[in-house]
Amino acid sequence: MAKTRSDDRCYPSRYSPDVDEEGFAWVTGRQYIVELICENKALKEKKDLPRGFYTKDLDLVTWQKFYQQQINNRSLTKLIKTHTIDDILNNARVKNFFDSTKDFETAHECCKIKCGINNG
After folding, report:
1. pLDDT 10s per residue in the chain (120 long)?
2. What is the pTM of this model?
3. How far from 18 is each of 12, 29, 60, 62, CA to CA, in Å?
């Protein structure tokens, strides 16, 4: 997790506890996809994910374990090797998921930046 955006940490995180003064945190593409997987699981289970849910600080052992399993998932590794992160995120099924669960008006500012709304 990083407080500043860089070439390898260019995806906005709603869950990283390591935020900058504007409230943004930046993660790698792999971490971003895993956050989305966790978010999807939480939505299905009707649970809220707090910022830092995968850190030891919050002691949410089940979520920590699930996050680590997904980060280390071999299928995700193969998917990332075959397709770019942006290709995965632009997949119709992924986009439909976002459209069905997110209200753009209430989306966090960093998400609007990634979507290109505030990024030209």
Report:
1. 667 788 888 888 989 988 888 888 899 999 999 998 898 888 888 898 999 999 999 989 999 999 999 999 999 889 889 998 888 888 888 777 666 665 545 455 555 445 544 443
2. 0.75
3. 12, 16, 17, 21
